[in-house]
Amino acid sequence: MFELLVISGKGGTGKTSLVGALAMLAKNKVLVDCDVDAPDLHLLLHPEEESSNEFWGGYKASINIERCTRCGLCEEACRFEAIKDFRIHPVFCEGCGVCFRLCPVGAVEFKQLAVGYWYISRTNFGPLVHARLGVGEENSGKLVTVVRQAARNLARERGLNLIIIDGPPGIGCPVISSLTGVSLALVVTEPTVAGKHDLERVINLARHFRVPTVIAINKFDLALEKSEEIEKYCAQQGLEIVGKIPFDEEVNRALSRGQSFLTVKHSKAACAVTSLWEKLQVRLGS
Amino acid sequence: MKVAVASGKGGTGKTTVAVSLALALGGSVPIQFLDCDVEEPNGHLFLKPVYTREEEVTLLVPEIDENKCNYCGTCAKICNFNAIAVAGRKVLVFPELCHGCGACSRFCPEGAIREVPFRIGVVASGRAGSIEMVEGRLDIGKPLAPPVIKAVKKHAQPDKDVIIDAPPGTSCPVVAAINGSDFCLLVTEPTPFGLYDLKLAVEVTRELGIPCGVIINRSTSTDGDVEKYCYQEGIPVVLKIPFDQRYAACYAQGHPLVLKFPEWIPAFKELWQRIVGMVKKGV
Predict the structure, then answer these.
(1) A110 falls in which pLDDT band (50, 70, 90)?
(2) Residues in chain A within 8 Å Cβ distance of B78
(3) Which residue on chain B is closest to A177 by alpha carbon?
(4) Is the pLDDT of residue A285 over 80?
(5) Distance between B169 CA and the closest CA of chain A, angstroms
(6) Is pLDDT above 80 for A65?
(7) Rounded-to-integer distance, Cα A177 and Cα A187, Å
(8) Cβ B101–A98 below 8 Å, yes or no?
């Protein structure tokens, strides 16, 4: 089973647009949206839900005010500043349980909560596993792990040999959960100083976890000089650039219709991504 | 006053807005710029600060005294982050997973656990002209951004106007970044992705009780859906920045919008005054 992860470091470089296009090109695959706190892939794929599952995240503490003697031990011990005036703010509680174990009168309740949902859905391009974390919640990394496991199970059940993952931006917990153990990371960057800066950090992250990496430069023609800098950097690092996608107004036009730009045959971006996919297939060994 | 710039979706122009605001105001009032997008901090690429101080951000993680430990497994049982495992006569600590809550050392029946600092990032501080700048940087391979964000925010001074560049998304790093702000600017783009993630970001600000306003970046004739949503929800659209290839090129090169196009300075000054007005009125 081959797991292809699309990440970027910097947000808004075109991860989801690219995955939406790959969804049309690749066959026999499961699609996954691991950007669980701002998932957008469904806006291109229009999934029909087959099953919906609660995501049991970490624990949250709350104070039973009738039992509370206002001793203040919990507030003093909480390292997350989640307790004020004998109330626990659920958004700041990280679910460590110190208050629960410490309370001398058993006034702290400590429960595991459903903090999101994950879904298996049907799309015109194959099954999609996606999720929605409650706003402001913790445990995005844990939800990513759940979603990835569900995708692997689904691929096995249905005899599909490829998993394409739309990853989150950044380099933190949900990115690390998306990255560990994938077969290949495709990093989408843009020719801007910020794009290059963030690319370098995410490449180092992939290297840290020993994940093979290839690069795509999106909207490369908007700043040719910066694209060349990125190409030079990638050459120094021994990283293959599998595609350079030109700026194309069709991308946003198609998106506003809720479609991938690949539906616009012979558009500049569609041609570039088609050749990118040919190069990727070599890596996929199929 | 403390104003956070957030977005839900990445790449909509948070840093452009935060940097422009800081530079537009910086000449007249003392401004602090806090880069709280610690996974991918970009403010420095535009403001080009000179950093004069760097401090490590550490979490307190467990260290086991093998002489006192009797391998009872209490620590592993109570750690809710799977950061400790006890296997036979061996205790394994995974500091990357540790949230630094202190439960293990507090409740170890043998007193065999002490807490030691574990580095997860740095906070750099210095100046960019008249702007005081503080930037957090999460170390590569460390998952926990919120402690680094909180360390950046400790530098906020109550007598200064503070601008916070927040990370994308809607989960704990965003909460850590925007919490305690007087106002939150949400930067979006007029696409279905921009709108969908804007709605999620609005929910976060409501959860925290922070008033917000929307900036439509790369504004075109397709703003309608975003405007309609904002109108229905009673959220003011406080600024529109039109799509312009010149602005894109300016951003690509790392030039702040208001320096290359000074005609935008009054718009950002007015925006600030409007925010001040809304915060005072308690809108």
Answers:
(1) very high
(2) 97, 101
(3) B143
(4) no
(5) 6
(6) yes
(7) 16
(8) yes
pLDDT of residue A82: 96
| pLDDT tens, residue by residue, A73-88 | 999 999 999 999 999 9
Choose the closest CB to B169 out of A37, A96, A102.
Answer: A37
Give this complex's ipTM: 0.94
CA distance A195 to chain B (A): 8
- Joined together, the tokens standing for residue A135 give 């706003």
- Beta carbons of B193 and A173 less than 8 Å apart: no
Q: What are phi and psi of A50, to 5 degrees?
A: -100, -40
Residue B256: burial class (beta carbons within 10 Å; 0-12, 13-18, 19+): buried
The per-residue pLDDT for A57 is 87
Q: Give the amino acid at B269.
A: K
If you average pLDDT over residues A61-68, what whole number do you get?
A: 97
Per residue in A138-192, pLDDT (tens digit) is: 888 999 999 999 999 999 999 999 999 999 999 999 999 999 999 999 999 999 9
May I ask the CATH architecture of the domain A57-114? Answer: 2-Layer Sandwich (3.30)
The whole-number pLDDT of residue A74 equals 97
* Percent of chain B surpassing pLDDT 70: 100
C-alpha distances in angstroms, B63 versus A64, B11, B69, B92?
A: 34, 40, 11, 10
Q: If you count residue pairs, one on A and one on B, with CB atoms under 8 Å apart, how many are there?
A: 190
The residue extents of the domains of chain A are 2-46+124-284, 57-114
Which CATH number, 3.30.430.20, 3.30.930.10, 3.30.110.170, 3.40.50.300, labels domain B2-57+121-281? Answer: 3.40.50.300
CA dihedral of residues B257, B184, B51, A232 (deg, nearest 10): -50
**CA A273/CA A251 separation, integer angstroms:** 12
Distances (CA, A) of B54 to B50, B99, B119, B124: 11, 23, 13, 4
Query: Distance between CA A51 and CA B268 in Å, rounded?
Result: 47
Amino acid A286: pLDDT: 53
Q: Distance, in angstroms, between A158 CA and closest chain B CA?
A: 30
pLDDT band at A230 (very low <50, low <70, confident <90, very high): very high
- The CA distance from A234 to A191, in Å, is 13
Which chain B residues are within 8 Å of A91, Cβ to Cβ? Answer: 175, 179, 207-208
CATH homologous superfamily of domain A2-46+124-284? P-loop containing nucleotide triphosphate hydrolases (3.40.50.300)
